[in-house]
Amino acid sequence: MEKTDILSLSSEELAEQICAMGEKKFRAKQVFDWLHVKKVSDFSQMSNISAQFREQLSEKFCIYRPKIKKRLVSRIDNTVKYLYGLSDGSSVESVLMEYNHGNSLCVSTQVGCKMGCRFCASTIAGWIRNLKPSEILGQIYESERDSGKPVDSIVLMGIGEPLDNFENVVKFLKILSESGYSLRRVSLSTCGVVDKIYELSEMKLGVTLSVSLHAATDAKRSEIMPINKRYDLKTLMKACDDYFNATGRRISFEYSLIEGVNDDDSSADELIRLLGGKNCHVNLIPINEVKEREYKKSRSVERFQKRLCAAGLNATVRRTLGADINAACGQLRRDDLEEKHNN
Ligand code: SAH
């Protein structure tokens, strides 16, 4: 019989299963604590639990963690990029970055992606499957263990569209929160899956929503982001306003600047028209060039930012981290897939 993936169970589900084994509820709390607070990777490390019950636990459950397949460390800024191997042979990436406010980990939520954004490396080979909660949590626990650094904030900005794996991502957030991790330290980035933004806002989890905008007119956005044909900008903006009104959390809009596509003065003015007067933040990202794509890094990042700021928008440029280790999401996995293919 296949063992149950214990790290994917909420505290409630764990309590149910442990009570069904004839143990008291506080036992489940102890086990949850070992798994998600002390973050042990083996039942034998659960020292306040009897050897006999630990044995029973290991017969019924497995503590599943992704395995580090590759680790690249930036010599410029200590950014660490991990390639994680999963049990079915597929792989995903995480990036650990050092900021003044602490360490931030960018995690993946799917193997591949269906969304088809034209500039993104994660979508090129399509979508394979959704990650389970344990596979998302495992990226955090393994990165912490390997680096010896605590993860102070988490961004769901790695491979995949988190709102296209809604159930598992919400369960991951629930378990994280039950472990005592404040969801205010979590940002969820979406290309704009509107019906799920509404569901998320109803849950009032307190996560920061980042919306990948990259263009401020429907014509331009539909060209680079197919999701815009399903949910246009008006529909998306309405959902963003709803999220802000329901949660009080300011939205962060991501805007990757691509030479000759969305980086001229008139694109800045379109963005000002779209976001002017909203309580939000604009995160400008010099696009990471992906070898399979023709898009080039903009040379007018500063000019674009100045124009937004002059119009009263709160716009900052994201620091480029890990420039020497190919830290853009999806690229390491792509290289790994290619290596496999060529061998
Ligand atoms: N699917 C989610 C989260 C993953 S992508 C989303 O779309 O938001 C994380 C962020 O990186 C998104 O803003 C995405 O648009 C952006 N991105 C993807 N490829 C990029 C590239 N080559 N250069 C710069 N940003 C990129």
Map the helices and strands:
Blueprint: E1 4-5, H1 11-20, H2 25-36, H3 51-60, E2 61-62, E3 67-73, E4 80-85, E5 91-99, E6 102-106, E7 110-112, E8 127-130, H4 133-147, E9 153-156, H5 166-178, E10 186-190, H6 194-203, E11 208-212, H7 218-224, H8 227-230, H9 233-247, E12 251-257, H10 265-275, E13 280-286, H11 301-310, E14 315-317, H12 331-342
Parallel strand pairs: 1-2, 6-9, 9-10, 10-11, 11-12, 12-13, 13-14
Antiparallel strand pairs: 3-4, 4-5, 5-6, 7-8
S-adenosyl-L-homocysteine binds near residues 119, 120, 212, 254 and 256.
How would you describe this protein?
The protein is globular, with a radius of gyration of 21 Å. β10, α6 and β11 form a beta-alpha-beta unit. The chain is an alpha/beta fold and 343 residues long. The strands form three sheets. Strands 3-4-5-6-9-10-11-12-13-14 form a ten-stranded mixed beta sheet. The chain has a two-stranded parallel ribbon with strand order 1-2. A two-stranded antiparallel ribbon has the order 7-8. It has twelve helices and 14 strands. The chain folds into two domains: 4-62, Orthogonal Bundle (DNA polymerase, domain 1), CATH 1.10.150.530; 67-342, TIM Barrel (Alpha-Beta Barrel). The model has no long low-confidence stretch (mean pLDDT 94). Bound molecules: S-adenosyl-L-homocysteine. S-adenosyl-L-homocysteine (SAH) binds next to β10 and β12.
Name the features.
binds S-adenosyl-L-homocysteine, 343 residues, DNA polymerase, domain 1, 12 helices, 38% helix, 10-stranded mixed β-sheet, 14 strands
